[in-house]
Amino acid sequence: MSTPISTSLMTSGEHATQEQSDRMLELLAPPVARRHAIESLAALLTPGMTVALSTHINADGDGCGSEAALAHLLAQRGVNSRIVNPTPWPVMFEFLLEGGIEEASARGPSALDGIDALVVLDINDVRRVGSLADKVRGLKVPVFVIDHHVAGDVPIETSSPSKPIGKNAAMHAARTPTTIVDAAGVWYLGCTRPKNGGSSPSRDIV
């Protein structure tokens, strides 16, 4: 089973003091503004909902990893999710889909039908969702953005929290995967897949 980050920190040195461990956790804690945005998102994505997760065309490790990790976090909260990207899921990242993650990109824009919310990761310009752009523009459900890039020329219209969670929300740079790890900590959930099932908290931040 994977070891929680907090435990790893506490045991990394045999003589680490509690004060040192507390300081390490303090350094890992997300900025207050980002934490509040993550808490707000949790309040809006409630058990029983179906949420689509998407990222930019030609998804990279940041986008795919963030989608897969967020899918695991949402599942632990009782939220159903499916990945809907504008281009095919990269073969090199297929291992990230293990554990029952639904990858529906092949269905195109129709995969966004019947969802209760959309979370777009690692991009904030609607043009970067390619073939999904028109569908995203016309959605009548809440749309959220988790991103760290400078705002694009054609921003995705989002719901409350109205600013992208990440650099623009917290005024403190954070890559999108880092924000997902922050969410795991704030929600006190695990975003890994332990070999024996279950899930361990990623850090002791409550």
Provide a descriptive summary of the structure in words.
This protein has 206 residues and is of the alpha/beta class. It has a single domain (29-186), classed as Alpha-Beta Complex (inorganic pyrophosphatase (n-terminal core)). It is 33% helix and 11% strand. The chain has seven helices and six strands. It has helices spanning 5-11, 18-28, 32-44, 61-76, 133-138, 167-170, 176-186, and strands at 50-54, 80-83, 102-103, 117-121, 143-147, 165-166. It has a six-stranded parallel β-sheet. α5 (133-138) links the parallel β4 and β5 (143-147). α3 crosses α7 and α4 packs parallel to α7. The longest helix has 16 residues, at 61-76. The two termini are 22 Å apart.
CATH C-level class: Alpha Beta
Structure class:
alpha/beta
Please name the fourth-level CATH homologous superfamily: inorganic pyrophosphatase (n-terminal core)
Question: How would you describe the shape?
Answer: globular
CATH fold title: inorganic pyrophosphatase (n-terminal core)
How many β-strands, per DSSP?
A: 6
Low-pLDDT residue intervals, each spanning 5 or more residues: 1-12, 160-173, 194-206
Distance between the termini: 22 Å
Kindly report the spatial arrangement of strands forming the biggest sheet. Answer: 3-2-1-4-5-6
What profile does the largest beta sheet have? 6 strands, parallel
CATH architecture: Alpha-Beta Complex
